[in-house]
Design goal:
Length: 146
């Protein structure tokens, strides 16, 4: 399956809207990346994509990536140092468990959008929106990285 075909237009729009909404309340940056396959460890692949997207370059090191490999049926969540230093140890596991429930029901867009909202709520708590905030990362879903 082509990653671009994993979600229909309505689902893509739902996720982009969730990102924009979450980022209204935080200086943090949230991205969603969809791959076709993931050979090996999904978390390691997500970390690789995180760096290829330049997400470690945010001023407060508060980027979050939700990575999905649709044909391999795996996903991972990566938070940068700034956010990982302040969220509870099990926070990303809780978000992953939440996504997994949606995915098991075939509600992929809803699960991703809800995970974006959960990440946004934590980012808001620790990295509230500032008057001079700049959107440092694209809100669009990414599919390919070099």
């Amino acid at each position: 399956m082509r990653p671009e075909d994993f979600l229909d237009k309505k689902g893509q729009d739902m996720i982009v809207s969730a990102i924009k909404e979450a980022e209204k309340n935080t200086s943090g940056e949230i991205r969603v990346h969809i791959d076709d396959t993931c050979d090996g460890n999904a978390y390691e692949k997500a970390v690789d994509v995180f760096f290829k997207l330049g997400m470690e370059k945010t001023a407060a090191r508060n980027g979050v990536l939700i990575y999905i490999a649709c044909s391999s049926k795996v996903f991972a969540i990566v938070g940068d140092k700034g956010i990982n230093d302040v969220v509870p140890d099990n926070f990303w596991n809780d978000v992953s468990d939440h996504i997994r429930q949606y995915f098991a029901a075939g509600k992929f867009a809803e699960g991703i959008a809800d995970a974006v909202s959960m990440a946004g709520a934590k980012l808001k708590a620790f990295f509230p929106y500032k008057e001079d905030d700049v959107n440092e990362q694209s809100d669009e879903i990414s599919y390919k990285v070099d």
